Amino acid sequence: MVTKMRVGSRKSELALIQTNHVIAQLKKANPEMEFEVVPISTVGDKVLDVALSKIGEKALFTKELEIALHNNEVDFVVHSLKDLPTVLPEKMVIGSILEREDPRDAVIMKKGSTYTKLSELPAGSIIGTSSLRRSAQLKANYPGLVFRDVRGNLNTRLRKLDNGEGEDYAALVLAVAGVSRMGWAERISEMLEPNQCMYAVGQGALGVECREGDTSTIALLSSLHHRETLLRAIAERAFLRTLEGGCSVPVAVNSKFTGTGLELIGGVWSLDGKESLVQNCQVSFADFGGCGDEPTRCYVAITAPQLQTAELSAAESCGQQLAQKLLDEGAEKILAAAKAENDKK
Ligand code: DPM
Q1: All domains of the chain, ordered by start, with CATH?
Q2: In this structure, which residue's CA is closest to atom 25 in ligand 1?
C-alpha cells in the first residue's frame, strides 16, 4: 500500500520551493511514499497594502495553514521558522527543524546600480524593508539612508526594486536564505555581518509543523531534525518568547554552535536604532553527552525523540537567561516604546 501524505504550503514561489525541498528530503529516505502539496493562502499573502509590523497578528503567515492541520485537511505544513510564532496553538508541534542556511541578511541593489554597499549610497537613498529589526539596526549604522516599507512576496519586491514601482528604492535588504532558494544569489552585492545587522530568530531554517498526537507523521518528520540548528533554534525562540516579542519588534540574534555548546548573542533596539541593549549567554552540552536520560518526546512543542532532554532544556534556558539579562537592563521599556511608536505611525 502506498502511503500518501498531504502537505500544506503557502502559494508563493519561495514557499513552494521550501515545501518541495522538505518533500524531497523525505522521499530520499522513504522512496515508497507519496506527497501531495495543498496550496493555502494566509493573511500575510492577502493583505498587501499594510506594513507587516502593523497588521498586528503574530501568526500572519501560519494561521490558515494551522487551521487546515487542525481540520485534518493536511498532515504537515512547512514554514520559514522565523515566521512561526514562538508559542504554537494548542495541539500543534514542530516535528522537524531542518539544517539552517546562511542566516544573515544581504543587500540587493536596483538593477544597473553602480553601488555595491550600503556605505556607498548617497544620503537620502531609499532602502526597501518592512522589517523593524533591519531598519532599526541599519538606521544606527547608516543615518543618511531612508527606510521605507516594501510588501509582497520576493518576486513582487524584486520587481518593485528593479522597475521603480511605488517608491524609487535604491536597494532592498533581504534574508540570504530566501534569496538563494529563489536562485537569485548572484544579485547579492553585500552580506550584512552581525556587527551591522543581526538576524531574526530562526532566520534561514525551515520548521515543519504537525498535529501533536499524529505519531506516524511525527516519527517521519523527526528524521529530518538537524541537531545544531535545532539547539540554536530552541535557544533563539526561548529568547524571543521570554521577551514577548513577535515578528514586529526590533529583536535580533546571532548564535554560534561551538562544538561543545552554544553561544547566543541577542539584542533589542529602539525604532530609530539610537537605543539598544545587546548581551550574550553561553551554554555547554559537554556534560550531557548521550548519557542515560530520557529521550525527548515533547519539549516546548518541539518533538525530537533522538535528542536528550537535558540539552534541549539547557538550550531553552540559555535563551531565557539572555532575555532576562536584557529585561534586567530595561529591554521592556525599549520594546514597549517601539511598539507604541509603530502603532502610532
Ligand atoms: C519576518 C520578517 C520578515 C519576514 C521580519 C524580520 C521580513 C520582512 C521584510 C518575521 N518574516 O525579518 O525582521 O523584509 O520586509 C520572510 C522572508 C523569509 C522568511 C523574507 C526575508 C525567507 C528567509 C527565511 C519575511 N520570511 O526576510 O527576506 O526562510 O528565513
Answers
A1: 4-101+201-344 (3.40.190.10), 105-192 (3.40.190.10)
A2: 83
